[in-house]
């Protein structure tokens, strides 16, 4: 493939890229701080300038103050860049411990919509089997966790209100 350009974004990841993205989300799940729900979530984003960032859900005793893994990953990514620069985001992965795989909550979908294009895919990983995952590496969990649910940003948030709607 001719070198990637900042003006075009390929939303179709190759198998190596998907593996890296998924492994990052699964690994991030181990950093979840969720003493109240015990519901671990990891998320990762891949940009077209090659950055792979991840985050985990962070809960606090005052429940509404906590943050989801997707926004935990996305906000620092955005804040790495001087305005108006912002890479295009090629894909997102989310990892939880349930089956079927959990999807992003509505609040995260709206924040992702701000920075992710409608054709971008979200790969949602769960844990298909009731086997013991304890002690498995993220790479090994990816091998046994089952196929991800995959949806585009546009499918996850149809008729969305986004940045373009405020540009007149
Ligand atoms: Zn969320």
From TrEMBL:
It holds the Pfam family dCMP_cyt_deam_1. One of its GO terms (biological process) is pyrimidine-containing compound metabolic process. Belongs to the cytidine and deoxycytidylate deaminase family. Gene3D superfamilies: Cytidine Deaminase, domain 2 (3.40.140.10). PROSITE patterns: CYT_DCMP_DEAMINASES_2 (PS51747). SUPFAM superfamilies: Cytidine deaminase-like. InterPro entries: CMP_dCMP_dom (IPR002125), Cyt/Deoxycyt_deaminase (IPR050202), Cytidine_deaminase-like (IPR016193). It comes from Corymbia citriodora subsp. variegata. Residues 16-164 form the CMP/dCMP-type deaminase domain. GO terms for cellular component: cytosol. One of its GO terms (molecular function) is zinc ion binding. This is CMP/dCMP-type deaminase domain-containing protein.
């Amino acid at each position: 493939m001719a070198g990637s350009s900042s003006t075009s974004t390929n939303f179709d990841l190759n198998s190596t890229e998907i593996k890296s993205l998924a492994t990052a989300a699964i690994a991030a799940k181990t950093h979840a701080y969720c003493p109240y729900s015990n519901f671990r979530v990891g998320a990762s984003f891949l940009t077209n300038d090659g950055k792979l960032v991840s985050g985990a859900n962070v809960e606090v005793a005052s429940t509404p103050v906590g943050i989801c893994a997707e926004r935990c990953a996305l906000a620092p990514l955005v804040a790495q860049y001087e305005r108006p620069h912002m890479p295009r985001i090629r894909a997102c992965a989310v990892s939880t411990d349930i089956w079927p795989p959990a999807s992003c909550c509505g609040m995260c979908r709206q924040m992702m919509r701000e920075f992710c294009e409608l054709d971008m895919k979200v790969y949602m990983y769960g844990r298909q089997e009731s086997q013991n995952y304890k002690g498995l590496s993220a790479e090994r969990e990816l091998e046994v966790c089952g196929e991800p649910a995959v949806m585009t940003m546009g499918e996850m948030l149809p008729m969305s209100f986004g940045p373009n709607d405020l540009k007149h």
